[in-house]
Specification:
By secondary structure, the protein is α+β, with helices and mostly antiparallel strands. It is 59% helix and 8% strand.
Length: 403
């Protein structure tokens, strides 16, 4: 019954999306079979770009040597791959540089994705497009890490002064989880995390020595999470974003097929952090999208997890609608409905928590108030009174924006 129900949204998948998935997953036989029917190549290119899997798609399609694939499609994909390769190499070098810099200053820093993940999964740092560098540090080391970034040529995205930044962290430590920096010369974006996720989501791991290992990339060692913790982080990251980019699911599919994973440990961690249904959901989606086998150690649990099947059904619908909305720019209202439905399933009690978060945001100082009015440190609590006044004023001044 559950499997019949979950099959419904998969009937909505276009031939172009199936071809993209088969190519991204390296399924040559399925890709060849799908090429026997008409393909809207313009739509496939847009899907591959949106889901950030165009290097994998190009790699497979280029190997097929099938006359049904137009040469201009391969040329466009190749051009995008070249552009991505240049960016990936630059970002890899910068990741190595900043990791060494943090280490030399005694900061325990973990690279969450980017170059080491691409190397771990695909053996090629250019095969997985990435728009930024994600580094996790302990909150106690955050000010020191920020100082290092500024010394190394990075500027905080909102151009906060050091005092404004201190106030922001005091008032938003729990609700926020990262700051965004951009390099003044290279324009490379670096997100400095002090926890895995924001309030309302599960905070997985505090950076400690016992969850770190080193992985070699281009001859340099980079600190990353242990295998099982890394997989859970990637699953949480994809799930909390509604799997809007299927590249994340391709990563999960590739990761789960690597040898040496301790599925008993993964199940224990997932249960301990309240992520069992989210883990099972990701395995269901990887199985249905990419024909990735569900590990035998937990297949029975996955198949009998009603919450996971409902979650997978909702995620599938949301994923398709997100792509349509971002590529075509339509169905915004339907997308909002699907997002609310998905997150109410993802986090039990989310609706009540969301109402609480909405009310608390009225009083929680934001960057607007912190940058608008400069208060001495000893009276920074006044921001909690300024915020609701500013909130009411904006809604009276711009009522249409909040309809």
């Amino acid at each position: 019954m559950r499997q019949d129900k979950i099959s419904e949204p998969f009937e909505q998948i276009s031939p172009e999306l199936w071809l993209m998935l088969a190519s991204a997953g390296g399924d040559i036989n399925k890709a060849q079979s799908l090429l026997q029917q008409p393909v809207n190549w313009d739509w496939l290119l847009k899907l591959a770009d949106h889901h950030r899997v165009y290097p994998l798609v190009y790699k497979t399609l280029n190997q097929l040597n099938n006359p049904a694939i137009p040469q201009h499609v391969l040329d466009l994909l190749q051009q995008k791959c070249w552009q991505n390769a240049i960016l990936a190499i630059n970002m890899s070098q910068e990741t190595i540089r900043m990791a060494k810099c943090f280490e030399s200053h005694g900061i325990l820093a973990i690279v969450l994705k980017g170059a080491p993940l691409a190397w771990r999964l695909y053996g090629d740092i250019t095969i997985r497009p990435s728009s930024d560098i994600d580094i996790l540090v302990p909150f106690e080391e955050l000010e020191k890490a920020i100082s290092i970034l500024e010394t190394e040529g990075y500027t905080e995205k909102q151009n906060l002064t050091s005092r404004q930044l201190q106030i922001y962290l005091k008032t938003n430590k729990r609700n926020s989880y990262h700051l965004t920096y951009r390099h003044n010369k290279t324009n490379i974006c670096l997100e400095l995390h002090w926890k895995i996720s924001s309030a309302g989501f599960h905070s997985l791991f505090t950076p400690t020595e016992n969850i770190i290992r080193k992985i070699k990339v281009e001859g340099s060692s980079l600190p990353v999470l242990l295998e099982e913790e890394w997989l859970l982080y990637l699953i949480l990251h994809g799930a909390k974003h509604g799997w809007s980019y299927l590249r994340w699911l391709v990563d999960i599919a590739e990761f789960t097929q690597k040898k040496g994973l301790d599925w008993n440990k993964i199940s224990f961690l997932a249960k301990n952090f309240g992520l069992e249904s989210i883990l099972h959901q990701s395995l269901i989606l990887a199985n249905r999208f990419l024909a990735t086998p569900i590990p035998l150690d937990i297949s029975s649990k996955v198949n009998n997890d009603r919450s996971a099947w409902r979650l997978a059904y909702s995620a599938m619908d949301l994923c398709l609608s997100t792509a349509d909305s971002e590529i075509l720019g339509d169905k915004k209202q339907r997308l909002k409905y699907l997002q609310n439905n998905y997150y109410s399933l993802l986090w039990p009690g989310w609706k009540n928590r969301n109402r609480f978060n909405y009310v608390s945001k009225i009083f929680k100082p934001t960057l607007y108030e912190i940058k608008l009015i400069s208060l001495p440190n000893r009276v920074y609590v006044l921001y909690y009174f300024i915020r609701p006044c500013y909130w009411v004023w904006r809604r009276l001044l711009y009522p249409c924006k909040f309809c």
